[in-house]
Amino acid sequence: MKKVPEGLTQFLLVEVKKMRAQRKEHLLKEHQLQAKNQAMEQEQARLEQRLQELLKVQERCQRLREEWDSNSVELLRLKDENYMMAMRYAQLCEEKNMAVLRSRDLQLAVDQLKCKVTSLEEECSLLRKQAAVVPQREAEERGHPDTVSELWAENQRLMASLQELQGTLQAPGEVPVPGSEQILLDILEHDWKEAQDDRQDLCQKLNSLQSELQWAEELRDKYLQEVEDLQLKYRTLQKDCDLYKHRMNTVLLQLEEIEKERDQAIQSRDGVQLQYSQSLIEKDQYRKRVRTLEEERDELLSKLSQAEGLNSTLEAQLQRCRGNRSLGKEVTPDSEKDINRLSTFPFPPCIGSILRRQREERCMPYKSLSCGSFSSMEDATGSGFASISLGAFSSSSSGTYARVKSEICLSTLPSRQEVTRRSLVVQLSSMGPTSNLSPQEKSLGADISILGGNRTGIFVQWVKPGSQVEKAGLKEGCRLIELRVPSLKEEVLSLENCTREVAYLSLLHWDEPSSLVFQLDLQGYQPLREALEEGKKFSGDSFYVRTNLPLLESSDPYALCVKCREILHVTDTMHKGRLEWYCSRVDPLTMRDLDKGTVPNYSRAHQLLKIQEKSNLPGQQKSHRNNLKKRALDQLRLVKSKPQKSSGQPPQQLWLDPCSDPDRSLKPYSLVRPVVVQTPRPVVLSPNCIAPRLIRNLLDLPTSRLDFHVCPAEKLAEEHPSTAHAQEPPVSKSGPQEWKESGQIRMIREAMEKNKHCLLELGVQSVRDLIKREIYPIVIHIEVTEKNVRGLRNLLGKPGQRDTEMLKMCRGAEQALHALPCSWARVEPHAWSHAEELPKVVRGCIFQEQTRPLWVEDGDD
Q1: Neighbours of 845 (CB within 10 A)
Q2: Among 231, 390, 465, 526, which residue's CB has the most CB atoms within a 10 Å radius?
Q3: Residues 29, 75: one domain?
């Protein structure tokens, strides 16, 4: 038998004694931990009781919210009914006005007929008077012919006497007449001639008098007729005046009635406006109360999670102490010989020991992975602001590594005209032992400290006196622009608009003073310096992200408890010098910052997301090989971005990206930006199986034709066949003219110009293409459950489809919505009770989403 070395035996005996001493210490610690455990259990019971109370409050809040939603739906229904009644009232008023006008016309016709009857009566009376006057005229006319006949008889008598005298004169002519008789005959003849002349004069006078009499009678008749006409006109005008007076009185009465109705309408409108303002005030109060309760619930949940984390840590320590005590119990004086005998054989550590060590390392708080040492600026600026010193990572005997991954997007800077967007992913790991990578020896980042961010730019705050950096011309107030890394074959890494975290990690590769491009910018550095001197909290970073996993840091009391799909406003990527983000929870409706706190950076969140994904997989074994593989996948390299084929694209940029990472598709954060659209946006309804019938029912609502325009899939397929296929790849931005000529975009833009919402029947697959063309649709998903699936049978295109198949299809459509690059709305099941009410709810949701901002993933539009 080979002799055992004496030194090894002595070493093992010493180790056994040390283990016994440690066992006693562990027993003491065990008692202390048991006491702490009891106290923590009591605290846990108290927190659980508080949690139950908060759950009750949450249920009550949910009931109040459901009541408020139902009241909102009822209010919309009442508004629709009120609108219909108002339309009916307007129609009745119009019919009433038409009837009044018709009655006025009939009254006017009656008055005109009365005037006509009166005029006819007047004419009859005048005719009667004329009939009475005619016999008198005939009698007078008869009297005149008597005189004429008398004159005619006298004339005949005179003619007869004249003839007798002529006869007597002719007879004596044969017989001589004596002289006295001749004289008498001459006198008689002379008298007869004079009488004949007088008679002729009288006849002429008589004729002239008859003509004057006839002319006077004609004038009299004419004047009488004119008098009758004037009397008729007078009576007609008097009747017209009376009629117009009556009409004016009627119009005045109607105006008084209209004024009364107007006053009543104004009073009712004021009452409705007062009720609406009161409902808005109550709604704001309920919202504030709900937010307060949610904040209290989140605070208590964070406390409970911290207590659970501390309890789990204490339980792990207790388990370790029990394991050590059981191991110490096995080392008894009776078995010392066996120990001495077995100590001669070099046994490797067991699998349980390796797994326990890995669990202990995993349970270590993330705050221990500090990004480096930080120097104070009290000597330079006189303030207590802790600046970032780009120094070395703290090393241990076993060799630690730092791994940081950050994904940012450059937001729009107000002081610049151009809008630049750049996505930068940084991930670093130790490429070997600590002795091989010494930032104090190779990196020049330890000689400077920086501040700023993607909003203000990266500025130098402090430079080490007498260093190579100072000799190269770098001083306080210089803006960092580019970094040329020699290991990347003179590739350029832009630092002009990156975050402070990215700049810090990029400067770790800075080993030559000439590889850094900078310029003096005191005007941009002055606001940062003034903020530091005044002690104000000034951040240079500003961008929005959407979380894709719930975050609950149990080891940090200042951590922000974040749910999935919440919007965060990141304002500091290196809070207090650590590689963690300081952000604010954003209200997605008002874009206001709410409660603030810290969240893990991209790297830590990516690790948590991968852990959640692996924990969700059933039957997956976590062995030390998986952990070793995970560490091996953390190896990173600097890669070059793909060349841009289009001449209009920006020049090539350098990306820092993980290599050979199978989980790179998992994104804990998605970079988003708010978009506010004033014009009516197109509408996409989900699920697709009920969208066509729902669009028809939505158009059947009153006044829906004025607000909506349907865009059927068949018409789109005829005009632009490529848009009808969901599997066709999206059109690249290199050919926007081809997309502009498509029928889909043309119809959508025409509807937007007409101030109408375009109802699309294309499904959610085309949303990404629409966003790339700067058309931001409203996506509304109707949640279908087992309770309300039967109420949607009349909206299905296939009547014989089973409920299970429809539920599976609707859930698949909801899962597809999570991959959209924009926010979408949901119609809850309790918001509607039957299929006839669903179009009204969807219509209200469309109008509500039109006024809200849309959160779009940056890089997808």
Answers
A1: 18
A2: 390
A3: yes
HSE (CB half, 13 Å, CA atoms) of 413? 21
DSSP character for 568?
A: E
Tally of structural domains, the chain? 3
Asked if residue 545 has pLDDT above 90, the reply is: yes
> What DSSP state is assigned to residue 756?
-
> For 190-214, what is the mean pLDDT?
87
In a domain, 352, yes or no: no
Where would I find the beta strands (DSSP E) of 328-477? Answer: 388-389, 406-409, 423-426, 448-453, 457-463
637-662 average pLDDT score: 36
Q: What range does the domain containing 184 cover? A: 6-328
Tell me if the bond preceding 687 is cis, omega within 30° of 0.
yes
Contacts of 131 (CB under 8 A, 6+ apart): none
Domain for residue 351, yes or no? no
In a domain, 420, yes or no: yes
Partners of 758 in beta bridges: 709
Distances 637 to 412, 632, 855 between C-alpha atoms, Å: 29, 13, 33
Cβ(600)–Cβ(367) under 8 Å? no
Pairing type for strands 669-675 and 654-658 reads unpaired
CB 692, CB 761: distance < 8 Å: yes
Residues 6+ apart with CB under 8 A from 695: 685, 710, 759, 761
What backbone torsions phi and psi does residue 461 show, to the nearest 5 degrees?
A: -100, -35
**How many other C-beta atoms lie within 10 A of the C-beta of residue 429?**
15
The strand pairing partners of 551, in sequence order, are 562
Give the residue from 538, 503, 495 showing the smallest Cα distance to 519: 495
How many residues can be counted in the chain? 861
High-pLDDT (> 90) share of the chain, %: 8
| CA-based nearest residue to 352, from 330, 319, 329, 328 | 319
Contacts of 288 (CB under 8 A, 6+ apart): none
Q: How far is CA 380 from CA 77, 386, 759, 859, in A?
A: 68, 12, 63, 41
Q: Are residues 155 and 266 in the same domain?
A: yes
The residue with tokens 């799909």 is 565
Integer Rg of the chain from CA: 56
pTM, two decimal places:
0.47
Q: Which of 274, 302, 328 is the last residue of a domain?
A: 328
What is the amino acid identity at position 824?
Answer: W
Q: What is the C-alpha to C-alpha distance for residues 753 and 757, in angstroms, rounded to an integer?
A: 10
Claim to verify: residue 419 and residue 311 sit in the same structural domain: no
> Which two tokens mark 383?
């303030």
Give the 3-state secondary structure of 493-527: EECCCCCHHHHHHHHHHCCCHHHEEEEECHHHHHH
Structure tokens at 794: 């009349």
| CB burial string 297-329: b at 16+ within 10 A, e below | bbeeebebbbbebbbebbeebbebbeebbeebe
**295 with 422, same domain?**
no
Q: Tokens for 861?
A: 């539009």
Crossing angle, helix 838-851 and helix 6-174, to 10 degrees?
100
**434 close to 416: Cβ distance less than 8 angstroms:** no
Q: Is residue 314 one of the residues assigned to a domain?
A: yes
Contact 307, 43 (CB under 8 A): yes
Residue that is last in its domain, among 606, 631, 658: 658
**Could you tell me if 182 and 294 lie in one domain?**
yes
Give per-residue pLDDT as tens, 7-19. 788 888 888 999 9
CB atoms within 10 A of CB 648: 7
Cα–Cα distance list, 90 to 600, 704, 706 (Å): 62, 19, 19
Which of 581, 633, 538 has its CA nearest to residue 406? 581
pLDDT in tens, 453-465: 988 899 998 898 9
